[in-house]
Design goal:
The protein has 92 residues and is α+β, with helices and mostly antiparallel strands. The chain has a single domain, classed as YefM-like domain (YefM-like fold, 3-Layer(aba) Sandwich). 38% of the residues lie in helices and 16% in strands. The protein is built from 4 helices and 3 strands. It has a 3-stranded mixed sheet. The radius of gyration is 24 Å and the shape is elongated. The N and C termini lie far apart (53 Å).
């Protein structure tokens, strides 16, 4: 793994980004002490590959935000429990 100083990285960032895109990995140092690593992103897992493929093809979009788990509950028309309560009850 190539070692690069923070100042060198900052002054030549486009060059290091091109090398990073080609798969090279870097250890970033400041005053001789390791402060971090730069490495290319891991390949997508098989679980998410289909989803990212849809995003690339324009069939889906992603805002970059995390899913908000506190979405409002859905109530069925009329009296009775919510749909999620019915599912939980059915699962026992």
């Amino acid at each position: 793994m190539t070692e690069v100083n923070v100042r060198e990285l900052r002054n030549n960032l486009p060059r290091y980004l091109r090398r990073l895109e080609s798969g090279e990995r870097f250890t970033v140092t400041r005053r001789g002490k390791v402060v971090g690593r730069l490495e290319p992103p891991e390949l997508e897992s098989d679980d998410d590959a289909w989803l990212w493929k849809m995003v690339r093809e324009g069939k889906a979009s992603w805002s970059g935000k995390k899913l908000n788990p506190e979405m409002p509950t859905v109530r069925l028309k009329g009296e009775g429990p919510t749909l999620s309560e019915m599912i939980i009850e059915d699962r026992g």
